[in-house]
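Notebook B, p. 112. Complex prediction, attempt 2.
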Amino acid sequence: MDVKNIKVNNLPVLSWHRDALNDADLPVSQGTVDAIKNASHPAYLVKPEYPEGLKVTEGVSQDDAAKLPWIKDIKAEKENYVAGKYPIYTKQDFLTGMGREADELIKETAVPVRLIEAPAGKKFEKPVYLHYTYPNGSEDVDITFIHMEKGSDLTLIQYLDSDSINGSGFAGTQTKVVLEDDAVLHLIKVQCLPLDFVYFNDMGSFMKERAHFQYTELVLGGKNNYLGCAVDQTGRESDFKADLGFIVSNGNLLDLNYNDIFRGSKSKGVMRFNGVMIEGSKKASRETLDFRKGCIDADGDEEENILMLGPNIENRTIPLILGEEEKVNGRHAATAGKLSEDMLFYMETRGIDERQAREMMIRSNISKVTRLIPNEEIAMAADARIDRIFAACDGDCRNCPTAH
Amino acid sequence: MDSEMRKDTPIDTGENDSGILLQDVERGLYDFKDEEREEDFFKVDEGLTPDIVREISEAKHDPAWMLDFRLKSLEIYEKLSVPDWGPPIDGLDMAKIVTYVRPRTDMKASWEDVPEDIKNAFDKLGIPQAERESLGGVGAQYDSELVYHNVREDVAKQGVIYTDMESALTGEYEEMVKDHFMKLVPPTDHKFAALHGAVWSGGSFVYVPKNVKVDIPLQSYFRLNAPGAGQFEHTLIIVEEGADVHFIEGCSAPKYNVANLHAGCVELFVGKNAHLRYSTIENWSKNMYNLNTKRAICEEGGTIEWISGSFGSHESYLYPTSILKGDSSHAEFTGVTFAGKGQNLDTGARMVHIGRNTSSFIDTKSICKSGGISTYRSCVEVRKSAVGSKASVNCGSLMLDSESRSDTVPAMVILTDKADVGHEAKIGKISDEAVFYLMSRGVSEADARAMIVSGFANPVSKELPLEYAAEMNNLIKLEMEQG
Amino acid sequence: MALLEIKGLKAGIEEGDILHGVDLEVNPGETHVLMGPNGAGKSTLGNVIMGNPAYKVTDGSIIFDGEDITKLTASDRAKKGLFMSFQNPLEVPGLSLESFLRNALREKTGKPVRIFQYKKQIEETCKLLDMDESYVERDMNVGFSGGEKKKAEIFQLLMLSPKLAILDETDSGLDVDAVRTVSKGVEIFSKNGGALIIITHSTRILEALRVDKTHVIVKGSIVASGGAEMVDEINNNGFESYVGA
């Protein structure tokens, strides 16, 4: 089969090639592209219930969607910004985390776009829930454009799972979000796919004045996972908060590129990454705070905590702080390592055995993200997923999440 | 293209002899690695010929193996491309540099040609006239030989060898040099390492025998006058088991050179339980492209400490690398970078943990002002074998205006769970309140700002010998005054 | 001649004036107490006298020691003999209190500081305030407790010996030990002929001092002035009678 590697998750500035963090390869076969092209869409979305007043349009062609004024009029990230001699950011009409080649792939699949529009001033109390169930062998891309008009308020959950436990497949999603002045959006993506799925989640968003955007992402399954998130805080006093939680299993990969661009004055951004890496897993994370000239009194904060469980793990991280505005505050902190011996011992003195202690620590790590999901069902599914990961322990340390 | 070329490399990189280099550290590991397609690169104009290299070698009375080494390095130089990720180096005039490295070429500047800002800096730093001419590249002999000889004879009583590279190469230490020379930084590493291998000249050789503790810092400052020194100089320091030495490179006075490339190379071998501190204050004139490669390898229980202040140069690529090969070896890097008008300084460090229970610590401060660009770049790599290791990175950036740019690009590659790696980075400005606070005590605004910046850089200056620390603070003050 | 003479002072921030025409005279060696409800403009007045660029003077003038200082920078004012203590002294990592003060003194006198004398002065001042000398070696205010910061401010006051010190003590929830040090330092300063403007709610700090005048500031104006007795009166009865005025 004809497989090509597309370059995704480009680091905004280049660094040493040998550290393998400048970008990632996402292998896609022509068969996958064809299968997606020939499917009817939305292929695996369980029919959702939309609240009254929320405008949802399925089946808009990608070309038509790109011409929508609220998409087109966005001052796109077209500048060829120069750090030294090299351009940062791949050119895109609408900046997303995964970058230009992901756009090209999506274009090739010709999957139609779902438009979700929240009218001005309208507050939706109940979370809107999109549930995708991918059967074994399924291959699909799902595209959603969200327009939060002035002062609107919405919580949207996208939940991906499967009816099979050990299936394989290809599931990609792309979401483009525009938040107008004073709009509030909580976007939640939960991925509980079988461990042989290729998964990508490409997100891009523009935030106008005083907009609030909370982005919660939980990744519990998947073989190779590619997560891209780009947020352009053009509006003053815009407020972005991201929480990513993940567990990467044996033999699997998680590759992420989160990018917060500050342009508006007093814009605020907080990104927190909490992950558990199981023996035999790989992870690469790119986390960028990009302070553009004029973002006076902007405040950016990112933090990564990785729990590494097992001696054969590849954990790569590059947290960038790019600054061209003097009057900002930016911080980054990262820690990585195994569970602390002191903590294990302390718990043991209180009668909790090592295995239980490890499980507790993993759960507490992921619960920082699950508690942000306002949906019992999904929170329970996430818990069940963690149970299954623990149940997979068969005494073979290479498979066991508590491998030591 | 890179890896293919490496396969064919005729250079003896020493992995099969003398046992100095470990087998598990592959070549070309560290800083400038380019694996991109050839068409992605900007090619510098060559013009360096085997004949020129032969001429250099002859003038220096090289042993035959060194001539051979130079010619092989030249071949590698021609095949390699410049890096695609750092500051642009299009402005590098290779033709001029090639002419300059030729022996017997009279490229001395006249005092009138020395730029005004450099002359002013000499004034403000209070450099004596004789020394100014030497630093200005005018070539008048500033007689430091006497001081140098005294130091040299002092330490010789302890069995320490402290000499220039040329003497070491042709004297009784030839074998030792041959065993170590460009083994840590092979010419295949990157284009400018290859160039160095072909045209290197001058530099220091230090050998500290087992258990010898050298009380006084050895300073390359006294060696500035050797012809070609400070351009492609090679520093080779071997510290044997249990020994201890502090080496200081450079000085705070701006050093001017007509040829604007500095591609020096520093190789440090730290023996079992040995301790080496390597301090640098770099203040090249602001036309300089500073592409310097520094690397240290530590045996069991050995410690390398880097203290680094980068103030000069038009552009810099500088990432001292510590290879913690031996169990329980330790590395520290403390650095401050000040990028002013017209400067693009890309600096940082690289730590490679291989041995068990190794530890590393990076603490850096970057300051940019008046349109200067400073990039902090680093990588902490913890290999699978480095069980029980600890690494910590702490980097701060201070921007003094919004014309400047400050980027922080720190990578971490962790391949074992049995290590603790922590990282903290901050970017910010001078707080207006802090300025007002100091002003309310009678300090002028300019001084208040300079004080805060000096305080910010204090982690570095406090590690330097007193006179260097004072010079560094003067430098910061001077940089703060310049528009 | 008055040491400080404020006439028709209007000042505030970008959004508008906070002080609406303040008149105040302080003679050499006098101690004035500035009282008023929260948000009345007490701290603003202190900051404007000291020349904090965060506040803009829109009208009126500040004459200090016979010279109009309204347009001078804070550092020039300090060189002329003004001082202000901060409620939250700022931390300056990497800069020791000792080396900072040496610089400040050199700036003030325009002469190099004679190290021997300087060290002696530090020693004596520390003794006076019952402070450990190791204080001065530490980075300025870094990791200091609230009490330690306040002590370090008073230490600076005595070292720099200004003509007029503005002490902003509004929110000082200090321990007994710190209050004692502050009171003692202020008493020494006053006895040596220094003039004081003390912004405070508390009487403890005033116990050892001879208060010459008390002013009540409400909504950006001084609404009443009187003698030392006003402090007790306000502490007993509150500001109600002034707020209405």
